[in-house]
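Dear Dr. H.,

I hope your travels went smoothly. While you were away I took the liberty of generating a structure for the chain from your last submission, since the lab meeting agenda had it listed for discussion. I wanted you to have the full record in hand beforehand rather than looking at slides cold. The sequence, exactly as received, is reproduced here:
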Amino acid sequence: MPEKKTQRAASKDKKEGKSPSTQAGEYVHEEIEHVRKGKHGARSTKQAIAIGLSKARRAGVKVPPSKTASKSTKKKAAQDEDASRHPHKPAAKRSRATTKALKKEGHSATSKSALSSHAKKSASKRTASSRSAAAKKAAHTKGTAARSAAAKKAAKTRAKKAS
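The corresponding predicted structure, in token form, is as follows:
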């Protein structure tokens, strides 16, 4: 069950007109925090993200599975969406079993270096034009002050690389 804080943040994102993936990001953050705090573990960064996405779908966030997702992932996503339409309390036995299994896993999957390498790997799978389009969209929705600060930071980084 997602925390109230996470649900509030996600609904705030929805009201602000942000994309479903941004809304789902709140649930992924929560999951990463849980692993970091030792509430349970995760076998890999990918698993921690998948749990967060599943929670988001079950909470009613309309996150479609990626086009390249496997058949089983797409099936699971559809199952999660159905669960969001008919919410019911999970069976205690199943819930306990999943928690017990996750508690046996490690906590290094959500370390800064693990998340960083996962992000790099994911970004490298995307085309340059897709990354560029995403950056342009992000810059457009950022707002003037934040855009100006980002430009200054970029200029500083360029200067540092040049020297």
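Two observations you may find useful: The two ends are 51 Å apart (CA to CA). The helical segments are 4-15, 20-37, 45-58, 71-85, 92-103, 112-125, 128-142, 144-162.

With kind regards,
E. W.
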